[in-house]
Amino acid sequence: MPWNRRHLLTIEELSVAEIGQIHATAAAFKQILGQGGKSVPALRGQTIVNLFLEPSTRTRLAFEMAAKRLSADVIAFDAASSSTTKGETLRDTAENIRALGADMIILRHAAAGSPLYLSRLLDIPVINAGDGAHEHPTQGLLDTFTMQEHLGTLKGRKVVILGDILFSRVARSNIHALTKLGAAVTVVGPSTLVPQWFTALGVTVSHDLRGALAGAEVVMLLRIQHERQMAGMFPSLGEYTGMFGLNKARASWLDPQALIMHPGPINRGVEIDSELADGANSVILEQVANGIAVRMAVLYLCAGGNPEAIAATE
């Protein structure tokens, strides 16, 4: 099927077929890179601007590397030395970037809905790299891509997302992606961070860690989103770790082959012990590596690339 989207704003709006198309295109790019290819000329001559107005390491670098692997020119926007510090609005910043000849904008912003807002103003593709506590679509896509590499189909697979669900854009994107792909998703953590209304998204809500982890084939740990919380949501980090941190004893409740995942940054010794983060079941660094191929696929498709041309190289 042809790719008909100009922007990538949410996973919620994607169909199962569109998720599959991104995954298939990412797999083709991953194979090309794995065969020793450093880049492909797919976006040569295009200029992509990384407009990151929140801190980021993995996502920003992965998008930059993905764009360079596609032979695009990449400009990293430095918010600290930009006119945004003088009060320039997001609209004016983006319209100036477009006037300077940008062909695509990748946006990370603290305000939910900001990528949608820009997509309605600009005549170039806008890619959501995380908007507030709303969504982080490429993270959900790379996470499900990584799961499928290990598990094949996700239909009926038991996936647990553990931690700060309420303030996590990663959780929301993964919930949308996983439920669309047929996984049985449980979200677990303190009741203040895992409210019952998440059941409306098609997941099971639990505050019983042992029951939630029992037999799970994937567990995804999330850090506490302190920067988005307006008040203390639990007594202390020590008490959170004591009740919900994943350690070796609690990991024994999982399926023995369960994948251990984390979108980063990891707070070692809080949501997960180092021996698990670095252990044999951890695919955390695979997630990081797969982020390049998945973001290559997103940039390529939204720039108007032909998915069949890339898939044919696989």
- Tally of separate domains: 2
Order of helices and strands: HEHEHEHEHEHEEHEHHEHHH
* Percent in helix: 25-40%
* Strand order within the widest beta sheet: 7-6-5-8-9
Q: What's the CATH architecture of the largest domain?
A: 3-Layer(aba) Sandwich
Assess the beta-strand content as a share of residues.
5-15%
Query: Could you give the count of β-strands?
Result: 9
Average the pLDDT over all residues and give the rounded result: 93
N/C terminus separation: 17 Å
Gross morphology: globular
Count up the helices.
12
Helix- and strand-based class? alpha/beta
Q: What is the CATH C level class of the largest domain, in words?
A: Alpha Beta
Please describe the topology of this protein:
Blueprint: H1 16-34, E1 47-52, H2 58-69, E2 73-76, H3 90-99, E3 104-109, H4 114-119, E4 126-131, H5 137-151, E5 158-162, H6 169-180, E6 184-188, E7 204-206, H7 209-213, E8 218-221, H8 237-244, H9 248-251, E9 259-261, H10 274-277, H11 284-302, H12 307-311
Parallel strand pairs: 1-2, 1-3, 3-4, 5-6, 5-8, 6-7, 8-9
Summed up:
The chain is an alpha/beta fold and 314 residues long. It contains twelve helices and nine strands.
